[in-house]
UniProtKB/TrEMBL annotation:
NCBIfam families: 2a30. The keyword S-adenosyl-L-methionine does not apply. It is a multi-pass membrane protein. The lineage of its organism: Eukaryota, Metazoa, Chordata, Craniata, Vertebrata. This is Solute carrier family 12 member 1. Pfam families: AA_permease, AA_permease_N, SLC12. The chain crosses the membrane at residues 130-151, 171-189, 201-223, 243-263, 270-291, 322-344, 356-380, 436-459, 489-508, 514-535, 547-571. One of its GO terms (biological process) is potassium ion homeostasis.
């Protein structure tokens, strides 16, 4: 069928409708059997035939709640694979996988905002949202107030190198490599390194931005105070107190602009940018206007080569060093994140951030270099400001003010006393140099206020993103947004409080180093997060920046760490100390998030690498540890079996809890797939270090056989099967018993050690879980669930809550025909109570007592090793080990160096049991009794009922049968009060001992005993007395 366009002509499939290639929608359908459900229509697509398959579409890859487009759901695999119904629709429909913020793939790619906030929201392009914001923030307070002082201290060469270094590091900034959404740097770190690093650095980064507001506002206040001084006006003292007052008033006005909304804040930024550009131009023009005598006396001489050469080299004064000056000037470089911090408010963060940020770095970098050159070539370091300080003709120039001397001015007195003018002394050099001083003042106001405004917006935005992730539960209060743009009003107020606190310090040179360490720590982790993601080689890490290099990211991270300690070692230690404490807090709390971090990727790579390394090493008896495959069914079905298996493996061995779904695959596979994730999550929440595995098969034995053969990875595969004793073997039916015993035969065939747990009350609590689920579905309220559970389990709820009887009344009124949650009969309630207590037996600390080990057969030592392992666990530390043997093996036990309180040698095991009737009654229904029949009749009976126990079999294995009865009597005599009993499991030879006789052996051996474990190793040594 033709369906293509060519250059020479156009061939169109008449059945093709391009609109049908859009993401499919669901339709309500009624079926002939009266069923009503939502299905997808099958359509004629671009492929020219009736199909549900869809062409690739970006909407399929969006997340729920995406703000950049509607999320569509592609046809599921089941929809395409399952059998069609009569009307051509799919039999079942996979619903949209709506994942909330605790899952949270919905947070991986796109910001998830409330759906009602999508209309009328303000989104910025890369110019207003990134370029303008970054330029204003990078220029900032340092451009007009501290740049001249920095170049006076460090000289043009060092400051130039510094500017180039910072620019190079920032140009390779990892934020340019990925799609960064709401939260900026916090988003990148948390999604890359996980919530532990992201949560800690997110708080530090938001705090640094809040303190940056104070720094910029204090810079603004300094300028205002200097202006007041020039006009001989003060508020209080013309010094630090005036700065505090002006700063507090200013931050209140900035808060008002921020709260008014992002649109007003963006408009204000444009106005401030225009003023700033005019001021910079005014300063450049001023450098070529001939200097007046007044300006010369203050150190300005227009462009002079000798001034540039004098200012070319560093001249640190007082306690200042290269890195102390670096710490003060470094916050000027933090503006690179101004666009990223509001990434949630950008129309296209992935495209706009690299473009706007790089261009901002280029423009501001050139500006700093040009301004530095202009200042260094026109203003000397020291000047008196006295127009009469002229050089006397004929006196040679020497000392530190040679350039000024050569230009006719004598500033040598500045060596003896502090002067007020020059690069080193006057923070308002830019105003003096400019063509029109008030414009520089306006530019200073613009630079400081724009940077303060940007930081005042950035800090709450980053903090809101952190709080939305709910990593710190106590901070979730600040996650709430207001208005169409989801403004973090509460975050604004908190930022305001922090800013005012630091404004009260009142000194710019004190505030700047504080935030330098916080920003450097953030940059270090940002760079490291990108390196880490590259190192993990995760397919999901695809940098969008063409010139990105992982080793440059690592170098940037190391440089940031080194500079932190060089600037101020104790501040660096304090910063990392805070970060480590926050990291530990998040690690302990374990927030329920999944962001696909590179930490997960590295963990996976390490696990694969270690598994491969183990595969190349042969097993050694000294390193043997039980790797348990426990047939628990669902993880909640047999809690005692799971708890005991977990006690054996703990954090040091592999534990697989397995379930076999019996039935046709088409009927059980959906239930199996749904249970895999649910059961694994439950294991994690209950802190069981185990894995869940499920298989779907036609029979229980076939499923178990698959698990025994295919479970594990390389050397990390199970070596011990744990199974519960089948209590109902006498009533379960022939097929069920054959399947159960067949599992034991399979375990021996595959050389598994085998452990069977028997508890008098039983292991299976699935009926209680099922009843709990019915109660939850019926009432949907915790109080009713609590009531149902307590009644089913017969716990004395009357002591806890006297209002529960009212729930009984309500259930009878609204659900008169349902008795699920009504009180069970007393006898059933008592049984349920005992079952519940028994199922929790291994979850709690064991009382003082003994663990009795009946090591009757040498199976390689597993019967002895497992109880020893139990004694090393905290819950079992008060239990002493007692060993019962049938021969003289004391010397062997001593060589194994296993501490035990007693070793008992049993000499009367082979004595005939006192009562054989119990066993006879037990196997009577399963005996063939062919001995009294003639040969033909006996043969026919055996052919019709081959599973029954023959008289010949009973006679052949009479001694072994009596041994099981006798062992039960001896164990009762010696271990009736034991906490736990381990007994060597008898083995039934295949095709020699019938399944029912073998079950009778196991039953009579453990009958009426405390909790008992039957154990048989695989007859390979797991113990050695060699060190």
């Amino acid at each position: 069928m033709e369906r293509f366009k060519s250059i020479g002509g156009e061939h169109v499939n008449p059945a093709y409708n391009s609109t049908l290639d859009e993401p499919p929608v669901y339709e309500e359908s009624n079926f002939s059997n009266g069923e009503h459900r939502t299905v997808r229509p099958s359509v004629v697509s671009a492929f020219g035939h009736d199909t549900l398959d869809r062409m690739p579409n970006i909407d399929f890859y969006r997340n729920e709640g995406s703000v950049s487009g509607h999320r569509a759901v592609r046809p599921s695999l089941q929809e395409l694979h399952d059998v069609f119904q009569k009307n051509g629709a799919i039999s079942d429909t996979m619903q949209d996988d709506k994942l909330g913020s605790d899952g949270i793939p919905s947070d991986d790619i796109e910001s998830v905002l409330p759906t009602d906030s999508g209309e009328g929201t303000v989104k910025f392009g890369w110019i207003r949202g990134v370029l303008v914001r970054c330029m204003l923030n990078i220029w900032g307070v340092m451009l007009f107030i501290r740049l001249s002082w920095v170049f006076g201290q460090r000289g043009y060469i060092l400051a130039d190198c510094y500017t180039i270094l910072i620019s190079d590091v920032l140009i390779n900034h990892p934020l340019l490599c990925v799609c960064v959404l709401a939260g900026g740097a916090y988003y990148l770190i948390s999604r890359s390194l996980g919530p532990e690093f992201g949560g800690s650095i997110g708080l530090i980064f938001a705090f640094a931005n809040a303190v940056a507001v104070a720094m910029y506002v204090v810079g603004f206040a300094e300028t205002v105070v200097d202006l007041l001084k020039e006009n001989e006006a003060t508020i209080i003292d013309g010094d630090i107190n005036d700065i505090r007052i002006i700063g507090c008033i200013t931050v209140v006005l900035l808060l008002a602009i921020s709260v008014a909304g992002m649109e007003w804040e963006a408009k204000a930024q444009i106005v401030l940018l225009v003023i700033l550009l005019v001021a910079i131009g005014n300063m450049l023009v001023g450098t070529v206007i001939p200097a007046t005598k007044d300006k010369k006396s203050k150190g300005f001489f227009n462009y002079q080569s000798n001034i540039f050469l004098e200012n070319f080299t560093p001249a640190f004064r007082g306690d200042e060093t290269f890195f102390s000056v670096f710490a003060i000037f470094f916050p000027a470089a933090t503006g690179i994140l101004a666009g990223a911090n509001i990434s949630g408010d950008l129309r296209d963060p992935q495209g706009g951030l690299p473009k706007g940020t790089l261009l901002a770095i280029l423009i501001t970098g050139i500006t700093y270099l040009v301004v530095a050159l202009c200042v260094s070539a026109t203003v000397v370091r020291d000047a008196t400001g006295n127009i009469t300080d002229l050089i006397t003709p004929g006196i040679p120039c020497n000392g530190s003010a040679i350039a000024a001397c050569e230009l006719g001015y004598n500033f040598s007195s500045c060596e003896l006393q502090s002067c007020k003018f020059g690069l080193m002394n006057n923070f308002q050099v830019m105003t003096m140099v400019s063509g029109f001083g008030p414009l520089i003042t306006a530019g200073t106001f613009s630079a400081t206020l724009s940077s303060a405004l940007a930081s005042l917006v950035s800090a709450p935005k980053v903090f809101q993103a952190l709080c939305k992730d709910n990593i710190y539960k106590a901070l979730y209060f600040f996650a709430k947004g207001h208005g169409k743009n989801n403004e973090p009003i509460r975050g604004y107020v908190l930022t305001f409080v922090i800013s005012v606190a630091f404004i009260l310090i009142g000194t710019l040179n004190t505030i700047a180093p504080i935030i330098s360490n916080f920003f450097l720590a953030s940059y270090a982790l940002i760079n490291f997060s990108c390196f880490h993601a590259s190192y993990a080689k995760s397919p999901g890490w695809r940098p969008g920046y063409k010139y990105y290099n992982m080793w440059l990211s690592l170098l940037g991270a190391l440089l940031c760490c080194v500079v932190m300690f060089v600037i101020n070692w104790w501040a660096a230690v304090l910063t990392y100390g805070i970060e480590i404490l926050l990291y530990i807090y998040v690690t302990v709390k374990k927030p329920d998030v999944n962001w696909g971090s590179s930490t997960q990727a590295v963990t996976f790579v390490s696990a694969v690498s270690n598994a491969l390394s183990l595969s190349g090493v042969e097993d050694h008896v000294k390193n043997f540890r039980p790797q348990v495959l426990a047939l628990t069914g669902s993880v909640r079905t047999r809690p005692a079996l799971l708890d005991l298996a977990h006690s054996f493996t703990k954090n040091y061995g592999l534990c697989l809890t397995c379930e076999v779904f019996v039935g046709p695959r088409s009927e059980v596979f959906q239930e199996m797939n749904a249970n895999i994730e649910k059961n694994q999550l439950w294991l994690g929440k209950t802190k069981r270090k185990a894995f869940y595995a499920g298989v779907a098969c036609d029979t229980f034995r076939e499923g178990t056989e698959r698990l025994l053969q295919a479970s594990g990875l390389g050397r990390m595969k199970p070596n011990t099967l744990m199974i519960g004793f089948k209590r109902n073997w006498r009533t379960a039916g022939v097929e069920a018993v054959q399947s159960y015993v067949g599992v034991l035969h399979d375990a021996f065939d595959f050389e598994y050690g085998t452990v069977m747990l028997r508890m008098n009350q039983g292991l299976d609590v699935s009926h209680l879980i099922e009843a709990e689920g019915q109660c939850e579905n019926m009432f949907g309220v915790f109080v009713y669930r609590n009531y149902c559970l307590k009644k089913l389990m017969a716990i004395k709820w009357l002591q806890n809550n006297i209002t529960f009887p009212h729930a009984v009344v309500v259930s009878h009124i609204f659900f008169p025909s349902v008795s699920v949650c009504s009180p069970p009969p007393p006898q059933v309630a008592k049984m349920n109570e005992r079952l519940l207590e028994a199922s929790m037996q291994f979850k709690k600390k064991q009382p003082k007592g003994t663990i009795d080990v009946w090591w009757l057969f040498d199976d390689g030592g597993l019967t002895l090793l497992l109880p020893y392992i139990l004694t090393t666990r905290k819950k079992w530390k008060d239990c002493k080990l007692r060993i019962f043997i049938a021969g003289q093996m004391k010397s062997l036990l001593q060589k194994f160096r296993i501490n035990c309180s007693d070793i008992h040698v049993i000499d009367d095991i082979h004595v005939r049991p006192s009562s054989e009737r119990k066993l006879g009654d037990m196997i009577e229904p399963f005996c063939l009794h062919e001995g009294s029949k003639d040969a033909a009749q006996a043969e026919a009976m055996q052919r019709d009922q081959p599973w029954k126990i023959t008289d010949k079999e009973l006679n052949s294995f009479e001694e072994k049968t009596n041994l099981q009865v006798r062992l039960n009597e001896v164990i009762k005599e010696n271990s009736r009060s034991a906490n736990l009993i381990f007994v060597s499991m008898p083995i039934a030879r295949k095709e020699a001992i019938s399944d029912f006789l073998y079950m009778a052996w196991l039953d009579i051996l453990t009958k009426d005993l405390p909790t008992t474990l039957l154990i048989r190793g695989n007859h390979k040594s797991v113990l050695t007395f060699y060190s």
